[in-house]
Structure formats: C-alpha cells, structure tokens
Structure prediction request, 714 residues.
Amino acid sequence: VSGQASIPAPLEPVRWDQDAVRLIDQRLLPEKLEHWYCRSVDEVARAIRTLAVRGAPAIGITAAYGVALGAHRAVERGRNIRDDALGAIEQLRGTRPTAVNLFHALDRMRAVIEAIPAAKDRELPQRLLEEAHRILAEDLETGRRIAQVGLEVMPKRDPLRVLTHCNAGGLATGGWGTALAPLYAAAQAGRELSVLADETRPLLQGRRLTAWELARARIPVRVLVDGAAASVIARGDVDLVIVGADRIAANGDAANKIGTFPVALAAREAGIPFYVAAPLSTFDPDTPTGREIPVEERGAEEVLGSASPEGVGALNPAFDVTPASLITSWLTERGALQPPFTRETLARLAKENDKAG
Amino acid sequence: VSGQASIPAPLEPVRWDQDAVRLIDQRLLPEKLEHWYCRSVDEVARAIRTLAVRGAPAIGITAAYGVALGAHRAVERGRNIRDDALGAIEQLRGTRPTAVNLFHALDRMRAVIEAIPAAKDRELPQRLLEEAHRILAEDLETGRRIAQVGLEVMPKRDPLRVLTHCNAGGLATGGWGTALAPLYAAAQAGRELSVLADETRPLLQGRRLTAWELARARIPVRVLVDGAAASVIARGDVDLVIVGADRIAANGDAANKIGTFPVALAAREAGIPFYVAAPLSTFDPDTPTGREIPVEERGAEEVLGSASPEGVGALNPAFDVTPASLITSWLTERGALQPPFTRETLARLAKENDKAG
Prediction:
C-alpha cells in the first residue's frame, strides 16, 4: 500500500505536532474531523480513557508519545525528568486494561529510561520521543506487511465479499490498519471488493469509523446491525471475515471488541474463513488462554443512554474472547501464523522483524 | 398468571375502545405511555407498518380489529360493508410480510365474512368485532398456558438466569406475552429471576420494551448490547435462552427478530437450552423450511440514522432464521412440542385448543 492508485494517504490518528500529542478525536467522526492537541499527560490519559483515541495499536502509540510528552513538560517546568516520565508510564498504564499493546509500548519506554544513566537525564525527552517515533514507524511498516500477508491468503474471488467488526483500520493504528490493511491493498491491486461493516454497539465504531474510512478510500461499504452478521453469513453472502484484536493469548484465543465471538461462531457454521489481523505487539505469551485476559467492563450509560429507566440495569463488557478453534489464521507482519504463541516463538519472530526493518 | 402476587394486570397493547382500535404507541416507550386511537383502516395499516404496534400476535390482533373497524366505518359512511371489510383485509395483508399471525388472523376474518350470506351484511360489523374479540381472548389464554408450559420445562435453578432477545412480552401479544409469559409465572410462583435483555438493534425493542415491562413487574433486568449475549452465555452466566417467533416453518426453523440466530449458536456452544415460545398461530405448515420464510428488508435509516454519510450504504434484514437443530423445544399453548409441524399435527392440536377453550 504505497502512494499509488486510488487509495488516499494514510490517516494520521496519532502524531507528534509542535510539542503536543495530536489526536483525531474519533468521538466526533464521521460528522467532524477534528484534532485534539494533548499538552499534558493528564490529557493523554483522558483521551485514551474516553476513547477519543482507540484501537490497540493506536493506544500503544499514543501512550508512548504521552511518556515523551511527560518528559518534555518536566523540562519546561523544571521538574525531575526521570520521575515525571516514570510517573507518566504508571498513569497511562491504568487507562485501559485489555489491549496489551499499551503495556508493550510502555515497557519499551521504560527500557529507554533504564538504559540512560541518571547523569544524562537531559537526553530523556529526545530519546523518548525518538522511541515513540520508532513505535509509530514500525506500526506503519507492520500495516504494510499485514496488508500483503492478507492479500495472499484471502480467497481469489471477485468481487470479494468481506465482513468486519468494529474498526481495525487506519484509525485504530498508526495509519494503515490491521484488519482493513489487506482491503486497502486489495483495492489498490484492482480487486473488486464489497465490505459489510458491523455497526458495533455500543459505541458504533463500525458505522462511524470503518464505514467512514472505507468510503474515504472509495471501497464499497454497507453497515449492518451486529445481530444481522450471522444470518447474512449463513445465507452465503460473505466470503471471509477479518477482524483485529486487542490481545492474543499464547494458545491463540483472541480478545476483540464485544460482538466478535458470535461472528466467529457464524463463520465456522457457514464454513468461511475467519482471520484475526494483528501486529506481534498484540500477542501476549504471558497470558496462557483467553480466560486470563482481563475484560474491561464499561459504564451502563454507553448501553442505556443518559436516561436509564428505573429498575433497569446494564451489563457492558467492552470485549469478548474468540477461541483459537474458530480462527483460521493469525495475520501478522511475519506472515499467517498458527499457535502456540510462546515467548520463544515471538522472540524469534521479533528478531526477524528487526532484521527486516 | 392470574391476578395474585406481585405481577401487575396484563398490559393492553391492543383494545377495542369506543369504535376505535386503541393501541399503545410502542415507538414512544419507555419515555411515554401514550395511546393511539386508530379510527380508519388506513391508520391501522400505518400503525402496523411504522411499528407503533409490533410482535407477531399483537399484529394479528390489531389487523383483526382493523377489519372490524372497516366494517363499522362502512356503515357510518353508507358504503358497502362487505366490500370495505374485504378491502381492509387486502390492505392489511400488505403491511408486513414475515409474521404469519397476520395472515392467520385475516384468514379468520375472511371466513366470518364468507359464512354470512349477502342478505345479512348488516350483521357483519358486530360479527367481525366478535371474532376479533375472540382472537384477543384466545391470545390471552394462550399466554397463560405458555406461561405454565415454560414454567414446567425451565431448569429449577434459583436464581434462574434468563436471556431474551427483542420483545416477546405483553406488548407483543394480547397482554401476557410468549417468551416473557413463563417469566411472569415464575416470578408469581416466588422463583428468583435475573433477566438479561438484548437491546435489539436497530429499533431497541429489548431496551425500550422488554426492560420496561419487566421492570414494571419488578423482575430484575439488565440490558446488554446484542453482540455481548454470546460471550456472557459462554462464560456461564446464563441458564437458558427464551425468545418468541414471527413464523415457524413445518420443520421447526423459526424466524424471529434479527440477532436471534447468533444467540442460538452461542447457546448450543455453551450447552444451555434455547426455547422458542409461540402460539400455534405462529406455526406455518405451508412453509416447509426457514429458507422459504420471506424476510422483510427495512429502510437504511433505521441503521444509519437520518444523516447517512456519502458512500455508505446499509443492509437491514428485520428477521433471521434459527434452524430447528438449535432449538431445544417449541413452547406452545399445547405443551412443549417437537417438529415436524405438519398441517395434520397442527389441526389436531388446534382441535384440542377448541376443546380446552
């Protein structure tokens, strides 16, 4: 997915801009494309928690820039740079529990701090910013590679009828996406595509974000309610399902936006492939199975609206876990993989990443 | 479910009131409990088409009263009573395609007309009204019996954790409901209940109607997004699923509100029972399997809202079909049944209904 053909330049959901972390405020899409310039770690934390920025890779990138921001602010305010950078890591770690990319990115930032002796603290702001830039650049490269991996494994049917859930596109990453990256590559390769986007309640990331970014790239897209996906698959109108992930356990179980698991059940029932596309930073060898993935429970107002009637409660898990047995393959920057995803396997693949990158 | 204990009197979603068909306008719930007095067949047809009244049994009852209304209006306006009543049947037949109760009720009204010689046309308004009253009374009795049938088959666990989709309650029927009737009976019998109501996009019948009517009866209810049902079932938090139906084919395949089928897949995966509760009038022996059930496709605005972004379409099937293989049993006023539901079986059961009623 380089700059040719009809696909527009990648989205820029998270960028460093004039000493601020500049985010597309995704809560305002598709009505308004507006930026939020976060000028403090508090603001970055709030942006992550309120879903102004969301998507596992994008959260990781944002948090990394947030740590760099903390170091920059410390210099300006004459505070201890190292303490403030470490404080930023702690604060950002508490924003959301499920996406492992967040912890992965923060661990990298901490490693940068630990590699620099106390005497050289004044180098920290620049070194942390460079690491954040590197995390973003790697993510963009990862998107390009997942695009090619996906293009190779997807059925060769034209038009290719794809269903996706939530938004694992440019907006959820550095700019190219995970689940949507192969679709951009397919469109660029001249393949005929027809995409069904689950609206993705309660926050409608499919209707608001996926539909918007695919329409921006002139890829035909139709929105359906989440409950309609299973029967549309059952009646033979979908060739493959592709989704992203927020955390993938060692056995291959994948946490993703609530509503993913029933789509996987329907795909198996219909005998069509169900792909999970994610960078290696989404894999967590320290989580043995999906049962151990912490699932964020969010507020009732997301489901009930502001005026919840008396005597009516809500249950609002933000993610579900799709068991590995329902997943055809795991599309990563190192190819279409199969579990188990042990620490050793991932370390070896990461090394290949370094060589390739 | 007679008048004792804590369960309030049945809802009155459809009643004949002073020469008008009085409906609870369900589009306004739960914010407002308002009545719509339909004074013409056109109004009744509009009420059905716009979902002011919905639910397969309630649609049938409303249409029956609509035909009686047509005959009454014909008298007042000095028009041909028989022609207008037959015209009402034709007009109401075109309002919605999936619920077979509509056609069943209209067939009964036509039989009344055909049984009366032309010379006695002036008896038509009263005779048609009596038949509509009979359809309503039978439905209320059916609800009471389904309640008992459900109470007997449901697991004896306390608290009993039930999940339902859409609204197959009092509002969807003459007043007691189908899927919710056994829950009212269980509450009245002193059983401890905990109900999860799928919100049921796009029109939120679960959040707006099911939650409202269960809260009204002081049955604990929590709303969840449709996509959350599968994982909440998978993690062991649900003992049984019970839903209504809009049409049941001869082989047992059941059409119900979009989003029912993935819940059935999740129930099978978790090994919990999945019950379909419906009166015999919902069974259609002339439709061999679910493939032959016509599924209504409704407007894109229900999914996208009024401001649909450029280049974004929608797909909006109002129903899906759950295959018989996923259904534990079919709870009717004649007991918990198993397919096939042939014309002969249903005729025999209907005869028992007559005897019992």
